[in-house]
Design brief:
The complex is a heterotrimer of chains A (317), B (276) and C (395). Chain B is built from 13 helices and no strands. Chain B has 276 residues and is mostly helical. Chain B folds into two domains: 38 residues; 217 residues, Orthogonal Bundle (MetI-like fold). The longest helix of chain B has 39 residues. The two termini of chain B are 48 Å apart. In chain C, strand 1 and strand 2 form a beta hairpin. The longest helix of chain C has 18 residues. The chains are: A mainly alpha (317), B mainly alpha (276), C alpha+beta (395).
């Protein structure tokens, strides 16, 4: 009895119809709404037609074993089959191992940005230079990287020059070593982007905070770890997201040019696996499936990031 | 007395070391380009020896690849895609920032959330859909995909930028008698050059350097982009490395040039929306 | 030229806040009406409703007798000067001023004539080719005015146009605006939070608080005969001194008592506040403007019951006068009766209130000194302690 009254009271709660956007009544407001809808229509249409619907289609395809000619429905079971395929896990393992390179992909730029921030003479020139690789296509980078890691390549020559000739090897020949070569190339090309992000972050820091720390007697290293780094948290998170997204999607070109996924499945990451399954092996259904899994992983990463950002200081970016 | 000179000396040593470190890093970043250029000017034998130079590889490059044709393709596709992306994202960005209507928040969220969709997840359905429409091996097919991929981020960027324009300006235009469409064209758009430049640079690099879309949607050698052409060259039969290096340089040059000219905007674009 | 009438207009926002409550205001053709009040009082919202930038939730706005609630801003034929000036950054001064005329298909020769005329009046002629960012704050403000003038509208709406200027410029521009409005004779509604601006500019001033109109009157009347506590304390700087006092009967007429003081209410004050008699034995709020307090040593023929004992705390030299901040003893707060016998006998701390007196610069009163201050008993104000309404007759 009492719950009923409580319920009806809750239902009558806040004045009904007092939402944030009411029906616009004035002519100006109506004109504004019409303009708003018209102007956002193209973008919305593009996103829905060329991004939204294909995702749905991909989900559909993923549950078939379509090979371009014939298709039979499998249903969600397809995911179970895929998840029990050892090759799939090998591929995921590759992605995971690559993630290990992220601390380097973020840490090194942090140091470089710290250096640049000191504004030593010519720092602007250096900044342009460091950022150059970002403009260059992964294909190009990959090709030069191949030359670097090859048997007759630059790396071995350098090792010989320094007297470490015994370490010479063809990194691209071994499964694990090829992955490492890939990781190194990836880190090298992300250096520029992340350096810029951190440099910008440091430029937005309030210099009086650093000065206050100096007056309080902290030395440079303490200042960095206790003042600068905590304030850069948001930028570190942003750079983390960008790097992870790149690691999961941008490596395709690198792999294509450097190793074609090999040797074996040594450098086949998920994004390459999608291409391989669908266009090299003709299994559209399977390819779509891996594509969806990739998508889900990205969403999870994004949500985790959001949660981390939210939980820290309550404000997002 | 001595303490002052000691401090100055220490500072100079410090600056010197920093400078030295930065030079080392610069070498690390730049060397691959040097290597690329250096070896592009060799023939096969000189490459193996790592000495001597000749221009023969360049000639070979232009015979093995329809370089000019591919550069033209890349340029056209980039230009048209960027124009379309700008058209779509500026209008939507303005509307999301200044012309909020019921549900516009949700639409905005949907558009921006689309950022998370990786190319590989949708590439298969795109291929199938556009194939059904007969758009494979046409400029339009690739352009549509590029536009789809670039719109979310571009819209987000433009919306953020337009949000920074004072509402008063828009209201003044309303008082002056302009409709919202005209307000966008005459007031908002002219004021957004920096953001437009940023979107252009970012998208140019993305599209020019893209491989997957070009590979699948422009298989015809007559329509290939330079990036795809280069990749095809490298995975083809034994091609001389110097030729590949020359090709790499040709492919990289436009992107580097655009970058050098628009550096400032690139930096702003990457970091916009953060800390605001 | 137009008369503007705000007929019971109300503005309620989507989240439930009411910014303007049933505002009734009638602005005559050619009048400069100032809307003044603290932040959040609804003055800007009211202005924007007249402009058409905010929807009217209730009531009607009439321009020249025509209801315009449903009319778009551009069809209302009014021009607005924004607080931030809202100049188009990418256009020159000339183009900024000509902008709206272009979109109303005014012939080019006519545009040139009007812009030239406005530039002449506002002394902007040397700057016509410049862009806003190349102008100083004062120049930008004039461009904003110029933009409104060339429209030759039925009315001007000005939203705190001077608040972004430095103090000296503000005083200068105030006079300019007043002069301009007088010579153009265009109906103007002017919003500001600065009561000095309101007093110097307005033909009439409307004081708002929390969306409710407190009083609308010519400046002098607001100053001399405030309708309630809010208007009394808002208008005038330094603010009117307000003290809680009890009305008591004394020989020669009513007296007000607080602390150890008894002030005889002057004859004129009694006449002006007929309702005072009804407060015998009860509390009223007594209001004394700083300029009606003077160093008692400088008032040789002070009437009895017109002097207060104060403790001087601060002395501010203003050149032509001196502001003396003092503390005067007032009634202590009564403890809440909680029924325990013996509580009423507790010792209560004597309280002091801060008052400001604007004195003749000859005064020698110094800080941390006890002094006597003379009160002009003819210029007292009285207010009801609960409603805040003035006890003045008429109003």
């Amino acid at each position: 009895m009492s719950t009923l009254t409580a319920q009806s009271q809750a239902a009558a709660g806040p004045t009904p119809g007092r939402g944030r956007a009411r029906q616009p009544r004035s002519r100006l407001a109506r004109r504004r709404r019409r303009a708003g809808i018209l102007l956002t229509l193209p973008a919305a249409a593009v996103v829905v037609a060329l991004l939204g619907i294909p995702v749905g289609q991909a989900v559909y395809y993923s549950m078939t074993n379509w090979n371009g000619l014939t298709a039979t429905w499998i249903g969600p079971g397809a995911y179970a089959t895929a998840l029990s395929d050892p090759t799939f896990w090998r591929v995921i393992e590759n992605n995971a191992l690559l993630l290990l390179s992220i601390p380097f992909a973020i840490g090194i730029p942090l140091g470089i940005a710290w250096l640049l921030h000191e504004h030593v003479r010519g720092w602007r020139f250096f900044r342009s230079v460091y950022f150059l690789p970002t403009a260059v296509s992964w294909v190009v980078i990959g090709m030069v990287a191949v030359q670097f890691f090859a048997q007759q390549g630059l790396m071995n020559k350098l090792l010989a020059d320094v007297g470490l000739g015994s370490l010479q090897t063809n990194m691209l020949a071994g499964q694990r070593s090829a992955l490492v070569a890939l990781a190194i190339t990836f880190i090298w090309s992300m250096l520029g982007t992340n350096t810029i992000i951190f440099l910008t972050g440091m430029a937005t820091l309030d210099p009086t905070l650093i000065e206050a720390a100096r007056v309080d007697g902290l030395n440079r290293r303490q200042i960095f770890w206790r003042v600068t780094f905590p304030l850069l948290r948001r930028f570190v998170q942003f750079s983390f997201v960008i790097t992870v997204i790149s690691a999961f999607s941008a490596l395709f070109s690198l792999i294509f040019v450097m190793t074609s996924g090999g040797p074996g499945f040594g450098t086949t990451t998920l994004e390459f696996f999608v291409y391989q399954s669908a266009f090299a092996l003709g299994q559209f259904g399977t390819g779509a499936l891996y594509g969806i899994i990739l998508f889900v992983i990205m969403i999870i990463v994004g949500l985790v990031q959001l949660r981390l950002i939210r939980s820290e200081d309550g404000e997002g970016w | 007395m001595t303490s002052h000179t000691a401090v100055v000396a220490r500072r100079r040593v410090r600056t010197g070391t920093l400078f030295a470190i930065m030079c080392v890093i610069a070498v690390v970043m730049l060397y691959p380009f040097f290597y690329m250029l250096d070896n592009a000017f060799r023939n096969q034998a000189q490459f193996a020896r790592q000495s001597g130079h000749s221009a023969v590889s360049w000639r070979l490059l232009f015979t093995q690849l329809p370089v000019w044709r591919e550069l033209l393709n890349s340029t056209l596709i980039c230009a048209i895609s960027i124009l379309l992306i700008l058209a779509v994202s500026t209008t939507a960005g303005f509307a999301f920032a200044k012309l909020r209507y019921r549900g516009s928040g949700l639409v905005f969220l949907a558009v921006v959330a689309a950022l998370m969709v990786p190319l590989q997840s949708i590439i298969i359905p795109e291929y199938v859909n556009l194939g059904k429409l007969g758009l494979i091996n046409t400029y339009l097919g690739a352009i549509l995909v590029y536009v789809a991929l670039g719109t979310p981020f571009a819209t987000f960027l433009m919306a953020t930028y337009y949000r920074g324009i004072s509402d008063d300006l828009i209201e003044a235009a309303v008082m002056d008698g302009l409709g919202y469409g005209r307000t966008f064209l005459r007031i908002a758009l002219p004021l957004s050059w920096p953001a437009l430049a940023t979107v252009t640079v970012l998208q140019f690099i993305q599209i020019w350097d893209d491989l997957l879309v070009g590979l699948l949607f422009l298989q015809n050698p007559q329509q290939r982009t330079i990036t795809v052409g280069l990749a095809a060259l490298s995975s083809g039969r034994t091609t001389s490395i110097p030729v590949l290096m020359a090709g790499s340089f040709v492919s990289a040059l436009p992107a580097i040039t655009v970058y050098l000219i628009f550096q400032r905007h690139l930096v702003k674009g990457l970091t916009m929306g953060m800390g605001k | 030229m137009a008369a503007i009438v705000l007929d019971g207009i109300t503005k309620r926002f989507g989240d439930g806040t009411t910014a303007v409550r049933e505002l009734d205001l009638s602005i005559a053709d050619g009048e400069l009406m100032v809307l003044v009040g603290p932040s959040g009082c609804g003055k800007t919202t009211a202005l924007r409703m007249v402009a058409g930038l905010e929807e009217v939730t209730g009531g009607t706005i009439l321009i020249d007798g025509q209801p315009v609630n449903d009319t778009e801003p551009r069809d209302r034929d009014i021009a607005m000067v924004f607080q931030s000036y809202a100049l188009y950054p990418h256009l020159s001064v000339y183009d900024n001023m000509a902008f709206s005329l272009k979109y109303r298909k005014t012939p080019r020769a006519e545009i040139r004539r009007r812009v030239g005329e406005a530039a002449r009046i506002l002394e902007l002629e040397p700057f016509l080719a410049r862009k806003p960012r190349q102008l100083s704050g004062g120049q930008r403000q004039r461009v904003a005015m110029g933009r409104a003038i060339v429209r030759q509208p039925r009315a001007f709406l000005m939203d705190e146009p001077l608040s972004n200027l430095d103090a000296k410029l503000r005083v200068q521009m105030r006079a300019e605006i007043a002069r301009l409005q007088r010579s153009l004779g265009v109906t103007t509604i002017y919003v500001t939070h600065d009561q000095t601006e309101a007093m110097t500019l307005g033909n009439r001033v409307a004081v708002l608080q929390h969306g409710v109109l407190q009083q609308v009157a010519p400046p002098q009347k607001l100053y001399k005969r405030p309708a309630n506590l809010f208007v009394a304390s808002f208008i005038g700087s330094p603010a009117m001194n307000l003290l809680e006092a009890t009305v008591e009967r004394g020989d020669g007429g009513p007296q007000v008592c607080f602390g150890t003081h008894r002030l005889a209410v002057g004859e004129r004050a009694v006449r002006e506040h007929p309702g005072l008699g009804g407060y015998l034995g009860r509390k009223v709020i007594l209001g004394i403007r700083p300029e009606h307090l003077e160093d008692a040593t400088l008032v040789p023929d002070a009437a009895p019951g017109s002097v207060l004992d104060v403790q001087v705390e601060l002395r501010e030299e203003l050149g032509s006068e001196v502001d003396v901040h003092c503390r005067v003893g007032v009634d202590p707060l009564h403890p809440v009766a909680d029924g325990e016998p013996g509580d009423a006998a507790e010792e209560i701390e004597p309280l002091a209130a801060a008052i400001v007196a604007r004195m003749d610069p000859r005064t020698t009163l110094a800080e941390s000194q006890s002094a006597k201050v003379h009160v002009d008993l003819a210029a007292l104000h009285f207010f009801d302690p609960e409603t805040g309404a003035s006890l003045r007759a008429g109003g």
